[in-house]
């Protein structure tokens, strides 16, 4: 990686990837990595590899600063708990999520009023506040009611054109408004890349901007879970998350507070990226 220009890293765990990125950004003027490319390649039985101590220390810093914890950020991209309750029935997952969508918005209208990531992925033309179709997209625009993820699952087959396996989050009609501090969506686009020879599936994601301290860990966790979900439905094994961010940043109001908790997070982050001992790494199921 370079001190100037593109920051790029590849790590065998989510915690290593985030720790390396976090410490690098802290060392730079303005606390930005522009642009930033991160790859995560470590998965155990379909679960992304993490360091439970780094995750817990980050959550402690986030809580102290009044931000959402990692798990809450992650579920905006993929609702893992709802998927568990669906008992392997993805159609039930879709239905339940859309049933609850207006309630999710009501719970945090300042954050969710413009939409939610998973909703854009499985119901692109849906108003998150009402559950109704948005006016600028006719009912005939989608063969699957705007469910881009289901389209990808159905078309992820050997011999099919891989360019079909992509989904949009950004909607210019709804999002190109100039509204101050809209804050959504930072995630713009995702693509899936199957390798039928190896039986693997990779996910690529593009963010225009991303708040490294507040959102990145949870975002990457949610994307890994989304990738694991799609892989499980296509008979493949999820093998890699690759995330490109135009501006990976920590704005002044989006940085951790100085103190004991930050010191612990930094120490654990350094230890995470320096250790060769993978015994400290666990699947996400082992994290709080």
In words, what does this structure look like?
- This protein is an alpha+beta fold and 288 residues long.
- The chain contains eleven helices and ten strands.
- It has helices at 14-27, 52-64, 70-74, 80-85, 90-107, 109-112, 117-122, 148-155, 172-175, 212-234, 260-274; strands spanning 7-11, 32-33, 36-40, 43-44, 47-51, 166-168, 187-195, 200-211, 237-249, 281-283.
- Strands 1, 2, 3, 6, 7, 8 and 9 form a seven-stranded mixed β-sheet that branches.
- Strand 7 and strand 8 form a beta hairpin.
- 39% of the residues are buried.
- Mean pLDDT is 88; it is low at 276-288.
Q: What structural class results from the helix and strand content?
A: alpha+beta
Strand content: 15-25%
Number of helices: 11
Look at the structure and give the mean pLDDT. Answer: 88
Q: Give the oligomer, counting copies of the same chain as homo and different chains as hetero.
A: single chain
Give the gist of this structure:
40% of the residues lie in helices and 20% in strands.
Question: What's the structural blueprint in terms of helices and strands?
Answer:
Layout: E1 7-11, H1 14-27, E2 32-33, E3 36-40, E4 43-44, E5 47-51, H2 52-64, H3 70-74, H4 80-85, H5 90-107, H6 109-112, H7 117-122, H8 148-155, E6 166-168, H9 172-175, E7 187-195, E8 200-211, H10 212-234, E9 237-249, H11 260-274, E10 281-283
Parallel strand pairs: 1-3, 8-9
Antiparallel strand pairs: 2-9, 3-9, 4-5, 5-10, 6-7, 7-8
Helix pairs in contact: 1-10, 1-11, 2-11, 8-10
């Amino acid at each position: 990686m370079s001190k100037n220009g593109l920051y790029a890293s590849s790590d065998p765990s989510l915690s290593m990837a985030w720790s390396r990125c976090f410490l690098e950004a802290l060392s730079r003027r303005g606390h930005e990595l522009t642009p930033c490319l991160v790859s995560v390649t470590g998965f155990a039985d379909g679960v992304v590899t993490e360091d439970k101590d780094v995750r817990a220390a980050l959550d402690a810093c986030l809580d102290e600063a009044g931000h959402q914890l990692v798990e809450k950020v992650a579920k905006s991209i993929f609702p893992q708990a709802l998927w568990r309750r669906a008992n392997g029935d993805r159609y039930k997952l879709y239905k339940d999520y859309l049933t609850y969508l207006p309630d999710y918005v009501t719970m945090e209208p300042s954050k969710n009023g413009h939409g939610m990531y998973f909703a854009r992925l499985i119901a692109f033309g849906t108003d998150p506040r009402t559950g109704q179709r948005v006016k600028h997209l006719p009912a005939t625009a989608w063969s699957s009611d705007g469910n881009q993820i289901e389209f990808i699952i159905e078309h992820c087959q050997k011999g099919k054109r891989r360019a079909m396996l992509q989904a949009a989050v950004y909607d210019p009609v709804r999002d190109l408004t100039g509204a101050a501090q809209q804050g959504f969506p930072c995630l713009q686009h995702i693509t899936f890349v199957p390798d039928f020879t190896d039986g693997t599936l990779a996910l690529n994601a593009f963010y225009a901007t991303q708040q490294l301290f507040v959102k990145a860990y949870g975002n990457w966790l949610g994307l890994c879970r989304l990738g694991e979900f799609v892989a499980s439905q296509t008979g493949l094994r999820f093998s890699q998350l690759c995330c490109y961010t135009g501006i990976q940043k920590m704005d002044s109001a989006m940085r951790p507070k100085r103190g004991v908790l930050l010191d612990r997070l930094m120490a654990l982050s350094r230890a995470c990226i320096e250790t060769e001992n993978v015994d400290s790494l666990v699947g996400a199921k082992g994290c709080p």
